[in-house]
Design brief:
By secondary structure, the protein is of the alpha+beta class. The chain has helices at about 20-25, 55-75, 155-160, 230-235, 235-240, 305-310, 330-345; strands at about 1-5, 30, 35-40, 95-100, 105-115, 120-125, 145-150, 160-165, 170-175, 180-195, 195-210, 220-225, 240-245, 255-260, 270-275, 285, 290-295, 295-300, 315-320, 325-330, 360, 370, 375, 380-385, 390, 395-400, 400-405, 410, 415-420, 425-430. It has a six-stranded mixed β-barrel with strand order 4-5-12-6-11-10. The longest helix is centred in the first third of the chain and has 23 residues, at about 55-75.
């Protein structure tokens, strides 16, 4: 039986110690591997943390971001032309922040880490129009390793070029569902993760015209997608097409982590492994969900025609770090909900905000328990954490939600697993892990 998650910092990090963000970053280098910290945007360690909001308000904000992000992901998957540089971000979405450095000497950057984006971009001087950010703008004139990318290059094509600018410099443009955008020059720089892991000639977007609803806490986007412009493929020879992350649970006082290269290898007798499915757009990581189980009762995946049209029989769900909730086909969700209602010895109540379909009251003081829910991917059975969460005072709701169009495996249900992406082997590996001990 799985108890509900009572605390929130929406995924991760109900941190009680108010140390600085910089102190929370952990770096380990071992040969060709590096591990650094990830900070949830709502954590007290995050510059974007709003202490005036309650934990329930921050949770509802993350839930709202999930629905906005899903809408934009759907629009992108429905396009026949792959636009690797257009990141699926709405209202400065994405849930985790990553710190890294660009240039020589290195200059600290803080960006949203996003498995649904390829191109990394930051705001740069001179800026025609830039949104307000807490960090100083990156100055190409102050680094010895900055090199503009020429128009007639593979890097220009892979970066999603929108044209050729002055002095034969390749231009880029990324846009988002809420009309936010970034555009500027493609350039190559030295990227440093942690203190010693450096990658030369890392191609990124040097944004000169940026506007929209971006948070002032971040300087841009750090692309972890599967497209050619992301760090995963750009630096494939160095990190061998591997990265992994381990997201701590709601009640942890530890940061999450992300690893590259040798550090990202996920091994052990209990590893669950599922194939990565190649589809367009190639930015996203597609898995095949075969069904879900409530306790011992299994329900096979059945999708509506609209989902089949978008996702096909293989690669029918996207695993995404930037979406909090998990979206499953409405038919499958209905069967899961019916099974849970039969198994839970309590009377369902209505979510006043109308977001969740299945909720229960926790105000009578009794402990709420529910059967475990297992996601059956091809070759991998993953027991989902956080299936029931206290979304407001005394209200506990199922955090799987029905979808008529796109299925997404969200980060709430990835917590407590070391999840490794191996681009070369075309696999995603899951290992149930105490992520608080990865120090």
């Amino acid at each position: 039986m799985a108890a509900y998650y009572k605390s929130l910092s929406v995924l991760v990090l109900s941190l009680t110690c108010l140390i600085s963000f910089a102190q929370s970053i952990r770096t380990i280098t071992n040969g060709r591997g590096v591990t650094i910290g990830l900070i949830h945007r709502d954590s007290p360690l995050s510059p974007s943390h709003d202490s005036s909001k309650t934990r329930f308000q921050r949770l509802r904000d993350a839930i709202d971001r999930s629905f906005s992000r899903k809408s934009f992901l759907l629009r992108k998957t429905s396009r026949s032309v792959d636009q690797t540089s257009q990141a699926p971000l709405t209202r400065a979405g994405g849930e985790f922040l990553i710190e890294y450095q660009l240039g020589t000497p290195p200059v600290r950057q803080l960006s949203i880490a996003d498995t649904g984006s390829d191109l990394t971009w930051i705001q740069c001087k001179p800026c025609t129009s830039c949104y307000e950010q807490d960090y100083p703008l990156f100055d190409p004139a102050a680094t010895n390793s900055y090199k503009p990318v020429g128009c007639q290059t593979d890097e220009c094509t892979n970066g999603g070029s929108t044209g050729c600018g002055d002095n034969n410099v390749c231009q880029y443009q990324v846009s988002y569902g809420d009309r936010s955008f970034s555009q500027g020059d493609l350039a190559a720089e030295t990227l440093t993760l942690g203190k010693t892991a450096s990658f030369r000639n890392f191609v990124f977007g040097c944004g000169k015209d940026n506007d929209g609803t971006f948070s002032s806490a971040g300087s841009g986007i750090f692309g972890l997608g599967n497209g050619a412009a992301s760090i995963v493929n750009q630096q494939e020879s160095a990190i061998r097409g591997r990265f992994s992350y381990c997201l701590t649970s709601f009640e942890s006082n530890a940061t999450s982590t992300i690893s590259f290269g040798n550090d990202a290898v996920v091994t052990g007798s209990n590893v669950q492994s599922t194939p990565l499915v190649s589809k367009n757009p190639d930015t996203f990581y597609y898995l095949t969900l075969q069904g879900l189980s409530v306790g011992e009762q299994r329900f096979e995946y059945k999708s509506s025609s609209s989902i089949k049209q978008q996702s096909g029989e293989e690669g029918n769900i996207i695993i995404d770090s930037g979406t909090t909730l998990t979206f499953v086909p409405s038919d499958l969700y209905g069967r899961i909900e019916t099974s849970l209602k039969s198994a839970i010895e309590a009377t369902p109540v209505t979510d006043p905000q109308g977001t969740f379909n299945l909720c229960y009251s926790s105000q009578n003081g009794s402990e709420f328990t529910a059967p475990s829910i297992t996601a059956h991917f091809e070759g991998a059975d993953v027991v989902l954490p956080g299936t029931f969460v206290e979304v407001s005072q005394g209200l506990i709701c199922l955090t799987l939600v029905p979808s008529q169009d796109l299925a997404i495996f969200g980060n709430l249900h990835q917590a407590g697993y070391l999840i490794g992406y191996d681009i070369q082997e075309k696999r995603v590996n899951f290992l149930q892990t105490d992520c608080t001990k990865l120090r």
